Amino acid sequence: MLKSHDRRLFILFLMFGLLLTIQFRNLSKGIKHVGIENIQEATRAVEKELAEIEQLKTAIISYKAEMEIYDEPDDDTEIVAQLQKRRQNLEAYLNYTNVEGPGVIVIIDDADRELFQGEVGNNVLVHDQDISIIVDELRRAGAEAISINDTRIVYNSTKIVCVGPTVKINGEQMSAPYVIKAIGNRKHLEAAINAPDTYAEYLSGYGLFIEVNTSISVEIGKYLGELNALYMQYYEEGE
Asked: Where in the sequence is the domain holding 30, given as residue range(s)?
């Protein structure tokens, strides 16, 4: 590209020189018209070409520096570090990586009290809907990651279903006690359990055991299942 501009610049200088020669000959013959407008136009054209060449040189230097990063990738390059960070953030968002942070640990267990006369046994058991509601309240309180008995909970993918006196979560059968871990603002998450009129308070009224503890470091393992979208699909902009 530079060679093409150099040729154009050479031709302009040549035309400029010929023009000056013609004007000089005209002056020597006593012709008063010297074509100042033509000289100014040629000068502007030369200046424009010089400016374009400088821009091209700057662009080439920039592209060469960028290409060197891609041609010789290693763990210390900034581009690789940025790509790794983006991948980690995406995996964390999709629940495909182990995460750690401040949060709460909630323990829910069946009641150990005696049944009242005529009372059904279901009143003292933890049910699938109880766990689902507690999880939803933690999520609304800002939980960024949640697990139950070390099984990662994924929004719109995890199924919590009742199986007799036990529950099945992500296809794994579990029984009480249920240990729910949540990462997020500790005060907000704790309030989702201990504040008045919460669902946890409602369960406590039936004698179920519910305890919440805050922690500066809660560890939650990655999701081991597959995330399969039924309706949404990827598309490129402009399609």
From this structure: 2-71
Residue 64 and residue 124 share a domain: no
66 shares its domain with 105: no
Query: What global pTM score does this model have?
Result: 0.61
73 vs 89: CA distance, rounded Å: 21
Based on the fold, state whether residues 107 and 184 are members of the same structural domain.
Answer: yes
Q: What is the DSSP string of the chain?
A: -HHHHHHHHHHHHHHHHHHHHHHHHHHHTT-----HHHHHHHHHHHHHHHHHHHHHHHHHHHHHHHHHHHHS--TTSHHHHHHHHHHHHHHHHTT-S-EEEEEEEEEEE---SPPPTT--GGGGS--HHHHHHHHHHHHHTT-SEEEETTEEE-TTT--EEEETTEEEETTEEE-SSEEEEEES-HHHHHHHHHSTT-HHHHHHTTT-EEEEEEEEEEEEPPP-S----SS-----TT-
Q: How many domains does the chain have?
A: 2
> Do residue 55 and residue 115 come from a single domain?
no
pLDDT digits (tens, 9 = 90+) for 55-113: 766 766 666 666 665 555 555 567 667 767 666 666 555 667 889 999 999 999 999 98
Choosing from 52, 71, 90, the residue where a domain stops is 71
